[in-house]
Design brief:
alpha+beta, 50s Ribosomal Protein L5, Chain: A, two-stranded parallel ribbon
């Protein structure tokens, strides 16, 4: 832990996402899976553009997501990283220190059993890291740029994950 509490890196949120790719029965199953895994009610996501090749129209529901914060997010990320055998690729980290990874099958989570009615669903986990004071760039009133010394770097994000979760970052 650093001497300055404003410099301490913290896990802001974890967004768990399943992209069903289509509305209908597959999306209903994806919502059910996400609800079972996170124990929260998922929000459906909509397409922002039309893609005729994939049969997707703008405004069509094509996936679902759950956002976890604080202790819930940390517990979920620990479990998800355990499933990944505490290994992440270096390319999983973006320039701001945030990271993302996928899980092949929801049955890898403890207590989840395969249901032939649902089938196999994978999910994506996107984790946002930050420091105190980040609200300055997001608030409505007196919005400002975040100073360079307050921004997180990729190297600091990797170091945080290594120390906090005991993850091995491979090239």
């Amino acid at each position: 832990m650093t001497a300055n509490p404003m410099k301490a890196v913290k896990l802001e949120k974890a967004v768990i996402n399943i992209g069903a790719g289509e509305a209908g029965d597959r999306l209903v199953k994806a919502v059910k899976v996400l609800g079972m895994v996170t124990k929260k009610k998922p929000v459906r996501t909509v397409a922002h553009t039309t893609n005729r090749d994939l049969g997707i129209r703008e405004g069509m529901q094509i996936g679902c997501k759950v956002t976890l914060r604080r202790k819930e997010a940390e517990d979920f990320v620990k479990t998800a990283l355990w499933i990944r055998e505490n290994r992440l690729a270096e390319y999983s980290f973006d320039p701001e220190g945030n990271f993302s990874f996928g899980i092949q099958d929801y049955t890898d989570f403890p207590g989840m059993k395969y249901d032939p009615e649902i089938g196999i669903f994978g999910l994506d986990v996107c984790v946002t890291l930050g420091r105190a004071g980040r609200r300055v760039q997001r608030r409505r009133h007196l919005k400002r740029k975040l100073p360079k010394h307050q921004r997180l770097t990729r190297k600091e994000g990797i170091e945080f994950v290594k120390t906090r979760f005991g993850v091995e970052v491979v090239d």
